[in-house]
Specification:
Layout: E1 2-8, H1 14-19, H2 22-28, E2 40-45, H3 48-57, H4 59-65, E3 66-72, E4 81-83, H5 84-91, E5 103-112, E6 115-125, E7 141-146, H6 149-153
Helix pairs in contact: 3-5
């Protein structure tokens, strides 16, 4: 199964904003939603194509309420997410899955009594030793996102 993770903007309550709007509520209503991190929603689809189609359907809401839309597809990686743009390029066969891994955005994950939260991302290039260590602050874990060259430079 392909997973989608919506990372909400700081100034909004993502679930409340999406479900207060009929079109978004209808689009998400058939999925079982989880909240693995504060102000994030995760769901499963059947493929990278269905994941990117859902994100396209939700685009109006994503622009307003979401900082990141990520896709985790087992045909690419079991552990590393793809940015929405990179997932669309994989779906459209503009880039091969094996060619998606050199440029990364690594989020720190901190946990407290209220749950886990994604914290400031760090842009890194994969080295021969793998993913460089997250060093912006002490974290409990990391979330690795493969990004396009354009996203890496922005």
């Amino acid at each position: 199964m392909t997973r989608v993770l919506l990372v909400g903007s700081e100034e909004v309550e993502l679930r409340a904003e999406l479900f207060s709007r009929e079109t978004a509520r209808d689009a998400l209503g058939t999925y079982q939603l989880r909240e693995p991190y504060r102000n994030c929603l995760e769901l499963e689809t059947i493929s990278v194509g269905s994941a990117t189609s859902l994100l396209n359907d939700l685009n109006w809401y994503l622009v307003r309420f979401v900082d990141e839309a990520l896709v985790l597809d087992p045909s690419v990686s079991d552990e590393e997410w793809l940015s929405r743009k990179l997932a669309a390029r994989v779906r459209d066969r503009e880039v091969e899955p094996a060619e998606t891994d050199p440029l990364l955005k690594v989020y720190g994950v901190v946990e407290d009594e209220f749950g886990a939260e994604l914290v400031e991302p760090m842009y890194v290039a994969r080295t021969v030793d793998g993913v460089p260590e997250y060093d912006l602050r002490d974290v409990d874990d990391t979330v690795v996102v493969r990004v396009t060259e354009e996203e890496f430079r922005s």
